[in-house]
Amino acid sequence: MAFTITPRQGLVVWVYSLKQLRQLRRYGTIYYTSRRLKYVYLYVDQAMIAPVSEQVKKLHFVRQVEVSHRPELDMNFGEHVGQLEKSTEYGTHETVGPKILLTSKEILEKDS
């Protein structure tokens, strides 16, 4: 019997009241609940994200449902360690060398 990892994705469920919190347990695993902002972070199997989000939206105590975009992001930061990137227009990046901080005296000497 082999252990298999099922990919999961988060759902942010904004609610009017947290009294019906137990009803959300049947749709997935409740990871976090914010009592002040009135939302519930729910983990659901990635294959079931569309039907579950539609079912949760139909509940009378749910204000809004948002799907987490974390699986779409590249979480491998090891390739980018030690590289500085300069942001330009519309999110394109240009790699530049290390930043050198100059004092005002050095700037004046450099300009003259």
TrEMBL record:
<comment type="similarity">
    <text>Belongs to the UPF0298 family.</text>
</comment>
<keyword id="KW-0963">Cytoplasm</keyword>
<protein>
    <recommendedName>
        <fullName>UPF0298 protein ACEN34_00945</fullName>
    </recommendedName>
</protein>
<dbReference type="InterPro" id="IPR016979">
    <property type="entry name" value="DUF2129"/>
</dbReference>
<dbReference type="Pfam" id="PF09902">
    <property type="entry name" value="DUF2129"/>
</dbReference>
